[in-house]
Amino acid sequence: MAENLFDYYAQILYDYHFLKQPLQTADAIFVLGSHDPSVADYAVQLYKEGWASTIIFSGGVIRPIGELRNEIPKSEAEAFFDIAVKSGVPVDAIILENKATNTGENFSCTRKLLNEKRLDYKSFILVQKPYMVRRTYATALVQFAEFSFVSVAKPDSYAEYIARCEQNNISKERVISNMTGDLQRLKIYPEKGFLVSMEIPEMVWEAYKKLIEMGFEGRMANTAP
């Protein structure tokens, strides 16, 4: 019963975070770093479907990217690059940005790299995990305000996504803690100027508080001044 209860609250957060936006063709598929290899898999799918002719992988954090996929930790961008190339994406269709250590830096470091390469991209498909779609979008509204973009993820249901994560040795507990952490960031980051404020319905905030009470608080942001 307890597991069913936290799944109930987690579903509410998942549905809120997974902002649904229709795909549109773009200059580049911009993939933000993650521990979840299915993010790279979805970017490859979008590339092969012809939504953009370039993939940008951004992420400098060095860690295992799904233990079943990478035995030796690499930067997120490098690990995603390996996944894409093994899936048939040409090397010259990929741009690597491997300095970013957080979501804001994914945007700022990628902007700097594109400027250095003199690439005048105007539109992007932002790809992340389902529960980071809304925060990615809210951050892009600040960091990429002059560009056209949509924020998307592989269209998994909550149950499908949890099953996919468990196949990659990413536990349900970790996913739920990440979701509470992302909601906290949506609440506190607008006042820091990191992202645009998003309305958080009362039902979503109550589900968040219940999950915190159950101990799912492993990824809280530092709120110290």
Descriptive overview:
This protein has 225 residues and is α/β, with parallel strands linked by helices. It folds into 2 domains: 2-15 and 157-213, no CATH class; 21-152, 3-Layer(aba) Sandwich (Rossmann fold), CATH 3.40.50.620. It has 8 helices and 7 strands; from the N terminus they run H-E-H-E-E-E-H-E-H-E-H-E-H-H-H. The protein has helices spanning 2-17, 37-48, 76-86, 103-116, 133-143, 158-167, 172-188, 202-213; strands at 28-32, 55-58, 62-63, 74-75, 94-97, 123-127, 148-152. The protein has a 5-stranded parallel β-sheet, with helices on both faces. The mean pLDDT is 92. InterPro entries: Cell_Envelope_Assoc, DUF218, Rossmann-like_a/b/a_fold. It comes from Emticicia aquatica. Pfam families: DUF218.
Strand and helix layout:
Layout: H1 2-17, E1 28-32, H2 37-48, E2 55-58, E3 62-63, E4 74-75, H3 76-86, E5 94-97, H4 103-116, E6 123-127, H5 133-143, E7 148-152, H6 158-167, H7 172-188, H8 202-213
Parallel strand pairs: 1-2, 1-6, 2-5, 6-7
Antiparallel strand pairs: 3-4
Number of strands: 7
- How confident is the prediction overall: mean pLDDT? 92
* CATH A-level architecture of the largest domain: 3-Layer(aba) Sandwich
- Apparent shape: globular
Largest sheet: 5 strands, parallel
Q: What is the level 1 CATH name of the largest domain?
A: Alpha Beta
Features of the shown structure:
225 residues, alpha/beta, Rossmann fold, five-stranded parallel beta sheet, 7 strands, 46% helix, DUF218 domain-containing protein, DUF218
